[in-house]
Amino acid sequence: MSYSGFSSNSDNPYAGGGRVILLFLLFLLSLYSLSTQGLTGFAITFGALPIMAIVVALALHYQMFTFWALFIINYFVSFMSRMGWLPIPTSVPNEALEMLCLALAIIDAGIMRFEKIANAMGLAMLIWFLYCVLELLNNSCDLGFNFGVWYAGFRLIALQLVYAFIVCSIYIDTPKKLINYIRLWAILALFASFWTWKQQTFGFNDAEKVFLIVAARTHMVNGIVRFFSIFTDAASCGINMAATAVMFYIIAITSKLKRDKIFFLITALACTKTMFASGTRTAMFCLIIGFMVYVVLSKSVKIAVSVTISGILFLCFMMFTTIGNGNNEIRRMRSAFNRNDASAGVRETNQAVIAKYMQDAPWGIGIGVDYKNVPSNNKFRSLATIPPDSEYVYIWVHTGPIGITIFLICQAMMWLGACCIVFFSLKNRALQGIGAGFCAAFVAFQLGGYGNQILMQFPNTLLFYGSLAIVYCLPRIEKEYEEIEDKKYAEQQERERKKEEKEKAKRVKGLWSRLWKWWKR
To answer: What number of other Cβ atoms are within 10 A of residue 495's Cβ?
Structure first.
């Protein structure tokens, strides 16, 4: 795709040269600022201009460049920040690329069509967005109206959800893009699994050791190290890997193509191994609930029976045996079934305290409000300081019982709408598998948000809300997807036929050779 009209406002190839010189001087000034004053906002902004110019140029000429760049950077942004490779807030590159994606879509009317976002998920997003806008008027803590504080929280719990929904809805609109989306996700997940293996085998690097020292209380439990791979923490790692594993198991089961089956099955197994290494006990229940969703969406008695039996055997193994207790990962996961677990008791105590305060704050303490804003003599100071330990509790505290109720209704709306499409609209088995995989992963992800504060962490929001948005696009591409799948399946059959003929020819040749040797004897 080319936007050639943007590159030639004049016949003079040197038009705008003054602006180029100005930008170059600002770039030199930013380098001077960087060398004398350190990493200031000015140095970051203008120092990044050459990179931004390259990104914009590529985006204008290649329609999907910005989206794939966003998808990859979103996956690694937390990792880069931990390693010290990202001198700016982690949300900046994501939001910049998301806005660029939207701007390019608006420029190209062929991409940005209203029907792509006019669905149940779009309605749910609009309701939640508007409620969060109304939260600007929330003054429960008697702090006055602070737009900056509100906007910081608004970006976290509303804007990035809307960005993920719109961007994935408008860009993943062909079978080829969908297939590339899934394969790229698999490659990234395999890298995350590899990095966990690297941490287990060769240890942590200096940046990771610093993180472990800070987070020792939650990442070194009873002598067991909880591995976090490239993610913000072990909880995000485990839940992301559990939801991703469910998705790729389902896609592998339903794919007609052998190479895809093998590749996605390997990815799912690697993600499962990483899930155990994270020591995130909630992740195990995420895996189970994801498969339960697929049992319903598959509409297959055979699959329902096999998955149910496998699930029961797995639960019996974990709950009623001590097999594998010598392995730290299995022992840690098995403790999830301990009703007397100390961490669960702490969470219940905290939530009981929060519930008492929330009776006086039906709208919550306000989006973006935290202990830095609430003075010590304020009656809601405790709410601002108690660790939520769950994304749902966080939303409950900041938007109140009204807000968490609206949030839950909106999540149910968007998920049930996607499930209806998979169950009633899609006919192609492989495409049903992709849709069911996305829906199952979303539920697994949401269950993780009930137990941990991971819904709004990178890279989770774009992955799981974005993939659910794609489900609404599947009916429009089903016919074209079937044509591509049939073509690839025919090629696969032809390769297998040729392989069988070659093996048969070898056997016949071998037989004649043995007969000739026997005759000569």
So the answer is: 11
